[in-house]
Amino acid sequence: MHYKVTCTSCKRPFKLYEGEEQYKQFKERKSQLFYCEECKHKIRFDAIRNFFS
Ligand SMILES: [Zn+2]
């Protein structure tokens, strides 16, 4: 069981699988913003970089 969503950042479609945090948010409609693995890593990296700059 999975949902197909579009990444908010790169606009590429990807899948949310059961058990993932974003899957829960999608199911409960808590969030409209979803990020693929690649963008999640990028965001995390940017956050760390901003923290140290
Ligand atoms: Zn993405």
Structure description:
This protein has one domain. The radius of gyration is 12 Å and the shape is elongated. It has a two-stranded antiparallel ribbon with strand order 1-2. With 53 residues, the protein is of the alpha+beta class. The chain is 43% helix and 19% strand. The longest helix is centred in the C-terminal third of the chain and has 16 residues, at 37-52. The structure holds zinc ion (ZN). Zinc ion binds next to helix 2.
Contiguous helical run count:
2
Task: Note the overall shape.
Answer: elongated
**Strands ordered across the widest β-sheet:** 1-2
Give the biggest sheet.
2 strands, antiparallel
**Distinct small-molecule ligands in the complex:** zinc ion
Q: What is the end-to-end distance?
A: 41 Å
Kindly give the count of domains: 1
How would you describe this structure in keywords?
53 residues; alpha+beta; elongated; binds zinc ion
Summarize the structure.
Helix content is 43%, strand content 19%.
Helices and strands in order:
Layout: E1 2-6, E2 13-17, H1 21-27, H2 37-52
Antiparallel strand pairs: 1-2
The chain binds zinc ion.
